[in-house]
Amino acid sequence: MHITFHGAARNVTGSKHLVQLNDGTTVLLDCGMFQGMGDQTDELNEHFGFNPKKVGHMILSHAHIDHCGLIPRLVAEGFEGPIYCTSATMDLVRILLLDSAKIQMQDVAYSNKHRARKGLPLLEALYDEEQVMDAMRLFKIVEYHEEFEITSRIKFQFTDAGHILGSAAVHLSILENGKYTNITFSGDVGRYGDLLLKSPQTFPQADYILLESTYGDSLHKQLEPIADALLEIIKQTCLVKNGKVIIPAFSVGRTQELLYALNSLELKGILPDVPYYVDSPLSEKATEVLMNHPEVYNKAVNDVLKVDANPFAFKGLRFIESTEESIALNSDPRPCVIISSSGMAEAGRVKHHIKNNIGNQKNTILMVGYCEPNSLGGRLLYGDHEVHIFGEVYEVKAEVRSIKSMSAHGDYEDLLHFLNCQDPAKVKQLFLVHGEYEVQQHFSKTLNENGFMHVEIPYQHQRIELN
Prior knowledge:
Residues 13-234 form the Metallo-beta-lactamase domain. Residues 255-380 form the Beta-Casp domain. This is Metallo-beta-lactamase family protein. The chain has 467 residues and is α/β, with parallel strands linked by helices. The chain has two domains: 2-218 and 408-465, Metallo-beta-lactamase, Chain A, CATH 3.60.15.10; 226-402, Rossmann fold. Helix content is 32%, strand content 21%. It starts with a strand and ends with a strand.
């Protein structure tokens, strides 16, 4: 048996890990899109590194695009097997992939106008909405803790990973040579004490672990509470400078956390009286999905629900639907807060909002999650004075701020907590995925100090035998 790492290997996006048994049976863990990888991005997304026709089964950890975003292309290139996920993940994947297809088509059309003028080759989207619907017919629901048999020799179960709605760690049990081998894939691990969700759950002892490592060298808890940070930034930008706050935010998870934090300020009577816009039709749909799955809420949210029937709504909030309404926000001079996807500012309406507001020092661009270093969000966080947007150069005059504590990924203490249920001596190998290489090297030493002596950091397309 072996495993090959076709994505999220010494980088954060494009999660794809292919397990192959000696008899040729294959199980693909995630099929995510690469994001924010600069000039490499398109090439990475166009070539899997394996033949989709030869993959028998797929298990999806959660609905973020860097974990599910290439599923329609996988199916279009010949994958015909089942795709297993939780019910909440399936609800989210449908709207996320349809939105991804729509954004791709819009962005390609916009870019091709400029490329055609310059005589450059035209671009094509990775997939369209029809291909998304073709892929959705393959999805099968498996709920948390349900032991599901894929074949007579392969079974698995999900446990709650506490990352986003429906997110799961995957626990495979594979029979070969008369004995079971247990493989755990963490997916993305959430935070203990998350603003909205329950904490990650314990899981059975594993022989091999694929562990995400996004914040393997960081601690979130040292940073200020989210609501307090938002209040200070909105007051300074909107009330003092008379400007706009532009917040790139993932439609699933981050946007709902922002709305919950802003709602908490209103409940305290201290929310600044300015317009608040969520300019992402997907975010409204994702919020509705979250409202339909109250079983994922932690105790604090359930307590709020006793006094507030909708913890994601407040005075002054408006969801923007049409493209025309979105464009109109850029010509409106009034101070406001605009929350829009995507979180890395690589695509979607937020890219246009940044383009139209980045040249005004009254405005603030507020980053609230992880960004690939080569993404637009990453370059803004790094402090670049000029950035390229839609092929044009823009000077960064707006203030760039960040709330680093707003992450759905656990820090290194959360990751160690996640592993507390494991006997390190029984773990044959622990593979670090979904992290920057420098961070992973640091985290590897931390894991060694905590008893996990066999830590590997796979590179892209590396194949490793599991003894």
